[in-house]
Known about the structure:
It is a single chain. By secondary structure, this protein is mainly beta. The chain has 2 domains: 1-33; 34-278, no CATH class. It is built from 3 helices and 17 strands.
Amino acid sequence: MKLNSITAGKLLLACLSLLLIASCQENEDPEMNEVGEMIVKFDNQVGNLPMQLQAEGSDTYPYTNANGQPFNITRFGYYISHVRLEGPNGELFIDEMNASADANEVKGYYQVVQGDPDSYAVHLHSIPAGQYDRIHFTLGIKEDGIQEGAVGGLLDRAAGAWFWNWNSGYINLLFEGHSPVSPQEQNALRIHLGGWKNIPAEGEQPQRFFDNNVQISLPFDAAVTVSESLRPSPHIHMDVLKWLESVNFESVNNVHSPAAGQALTPTLAAAFYVDHTHQ
């Protein structure tokens, strides 16, 4: 069948339109699947001063709490898990979680240890491209997802993980140092906060086990863009003085159980804030 010039022209235009649509769709698909990274940096502070560790037994006291009590810090750190990012347009990223005996398969758990700069940066991968303006995370390690058995990597208690037992769980935050007002040997301060399950009191015995994990939600100072070429880096500060508030080291200096740490847990969330963000 022969086509006149008008019909042929219409067919050619239709074919060109279909090719253009297909071309646009091919170009859009990679953008829809584009992912990027974010590096969340943790900086530990004591008021306006950067945290600096002293040697065990040191009587140099560079810091002073709200009660006017001098102190130093010899060990400090905390666990971070269940990181989540949110954006102003419904963007959502949930960091993958996995506890395994194989250290290479452990995902979503991080340990920030003062004195180990490599631990200060939390690398988040495979984030859907878009804008993000808020971060959520858990200070501590939840019982969910960790079975009673062997776990590797930074969760491995045999390799030095901060772990009490299967009722108390992990130490969420570890603070050690000295203060001349502490009555402990060598004026020691030993405050270990943890606990991952609530076990009710039995009979006349008070409750001993508590879930002291802390849920933290922080807005960024400005929305940031994640893409294949843009890798933002929010800097989160943790201020020890905001956490300790008016703690008296004369009486609070040796905390080693979920029950003893309950009173020191509520002020932890306010100690974290986003100081600035590199886009």
